[in-house]
Amino acid sequence: MRTFGGFRSGDRFFYGEVRGDAVHVLIRPYWIETQPTGEVLPFASLQIDLPVAPSKLIAVGLNYADHIAEMKRTPLGTPLIWFKAPSSLLPHNGAIEIAFPEHQTDFEAELAVVIGKTAKNLAVERALDFVFGYTIGLDISDRDLQKSEKQFAAANPSTLIRRSGRLFMPARMLPMFR
């Protein structure tokens, strides 16, 4: 299974493919092409950075019954959807800043789905054709703020509150999601 990510060596940022204990530096971001430069660096010598560079993040909340009941919210009939800024992503080991430490803050590990092509009004059967790949997300929510607002944008602020996975798996490499 091929694995890709964003890496830093000193001040230099690059995308690479992880093969064993080494990272093969790529000429361009892996979602454009996977041609290596020929430079190979030891994985242990690198800082792991963001695996993706999204133009936007779409968050989905109140999307399962147990969570709605736990939060004592009224079911809406459809999930709550809002945008988050890409600057809310942190690299591996990035510092998480909690705006109000005295508030109830919850952490949830989530599967992050990376959409690779523009789509609209798709048939369900075609949806996975537009998934580029997957990574892991750490969602951090201020439950005190969520109780006081209709939207969740303030309770899931875009300033340093979401971690992304260390590495990225292209959808075509994970047949269990097809």
Give a topology summary:
Layout: E1 3-9, E2 12-19, E3 22-26, E4 36-42, E5 47-49, E6 57-61, H1 65-70, E7 80-84, E8 89-90, E9 105-115, E10 131-142, H2 143-147, E11 162-164, E12 169-170
Parallel strand pairs: 8-11
Antiparallel strand pairs: 1-2, 1-5, 2-3, 3-4, 6-7, 9-10, 10-11, 10-12
What would you note in describing this structure?
This protein is mainly beta and 178 residues long. It is built from 2 helices and 12 strands. It has helices spanning 65-70, 143-147; strands at 3-9, 12-19, 22-26, 36-42, 47-49, 57-61, 80-84, 89-90, 105-115, 131-142, 162-164, 169-170. The strands form 3 sheets. Strands 4-3-2-1-5 form a 5-stranded antiparallel beta sheet, with no helix packed on it. The longest helix has 6 residues, at 65-70. The two termini are 15 Å apart.
In short:
This protein has 178 residues and is mainly beta. The protein contains two helices and twelve strands; from the N terminus they run ββββββαββββαββ. The protein has helices at 65-70, 143-147; strands spanning 3-9, 12-19, 22-26, 36-42, 47-49, 57-61, 80-84, 89-90, 105-115, 131-142, 162-164, 169-170.
